[in-house]
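Lab channel / #folding
Pinned by the channel admin:
"Please post every new chain as: sequence first, then the structure tokens as a reply. Keep commentary short and put observations after the output so the thread stays searchable."

First post following the new format, from NK:
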Amino acid sequence: MENIDINKIIKQLEINNFEVFLAKNIQSAKDIFENNILKQLKFSSVSFGDSITMRKTGILDVLRNKDSIEFIDTFDESDSWKDQINKRKKALTADLFLTGTNAITKKGQLVNLDMIGNRVAPLAFGPRNVVLFIGKNKIVNDLDEAMNRIRTISAPLNAKRHEDLKTPCQKTGICCDCKSPQRICNTWTITEKSYPKNRVKIILIDEELGY
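Reply from TO:
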């Protein structure tokens, strides 16, 4: 989408009760998280959902090495699938949850599509605070454009980076509305507002990041 006025997007998100921070780049996003968010939060446990942008900041290494908090790693490859699922359930009780989002509309709505729900469920309910790291390329005009972006860009690219999955979009590059048992497009969520106010915190980054 051309001619994005980030300040207008921020204003609308704030009207929708999200707490928003503007970062000029990925390093600035990390600094904001460490200096403006972590210092104001009281938490003893943290977990996260998959997000290229969030991972790129390097904050997971910072949190993983803090002895004072419980780091719930739901993507530990040494765990069995059953143990990973149990940890993802436990992540719903974490004090802090980190991830990204698939799209933001001009009305300040967050739109996401998930495989098993471990990313969107904590966004909706559970953790006391949620922090989202979002590149400006995720901004779209409306819900229709958000869903189209997710089907044609986000979902196929995310499927492709998981080599263990076998879905048609990995080869075609577009959504086929498949019936694959490994289909990653199962649960849509639209987050209209943050409840309670400022529970969901957004670091909006003035760069194109992630899918």
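NK: Strands lie at 19-23, 45-48, 70-72, 96-99, 103-105, 110-114, 129-135, 139-140, 187-191, 200-205.
TO: also worth noting, The chain is about 35% helix and 20% strand.
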